[in-house]
Amino acid sequence: MRRPAGAAVGMVVALALAGCGSDDGAASASSAKPGLKVSGAYMPAPSMDTMAAGFFTVANSGGADTLTSVSSDLSADVTLHSTEGGAMEEEMSFPVPAKGQLDFASGGNHLMFEKLTHKPKQGEKVSVKLHFAKSGTVAVEMPVKAATYNPKTGH
Fold it and tell me: Which residues contact 116 (CB under 8 A, 6 or more apart)?
């Protein structure tokens, strides 16, 4: 009778240790330093004098991070928005997954610049600072493209 009970205890200990090992691996991946690279940034030329949108992609080759806010000389009021099913909602932050990416694209997540200091024209560049919880501030030059610009075609 003692042998089966000993085997059961051994199995429980082995499973517990295996569980701890996978938790440690997950903790290591989430605590690893993020490796952020921003690409594809652009602003469609705004049709209004008071509001504009911005788009970009954040690729992350390291541990998880969080985009917490955005600032720009173009507007004192830059907010983060998500769009699902046609409904836009302001967000306080966006997670940047470990070894993943965060996309801000037309019809989806996007920046809203309100109360513009001036109406940017096609060909200008807008300076933007992306603020991340772990990586700090990343400066980005966001070129102003045609209002109908499509990044997939480049036109």
Answer: 46, 49, 50, 51, 52, 74, 75
Under 8 Å between Cβ of 42 and 55: yes
Maximum Cα–Cα distance across the chain:
83
Q: In the structure, how many helices (H) and strands (E) does the chain have?
A: 1, 10
Q: What is the CA radius of gyration of the chain?
A: 22
* Predicted confidence (pLDDT) per residue in 87-107, tens digit: 999 999 999 999 999 999 999
What pTM does this model have? 0.80
Buried b (16+ CB within 10 A) or exposed e, 130-151: bebebbeeeebebebbeeebee
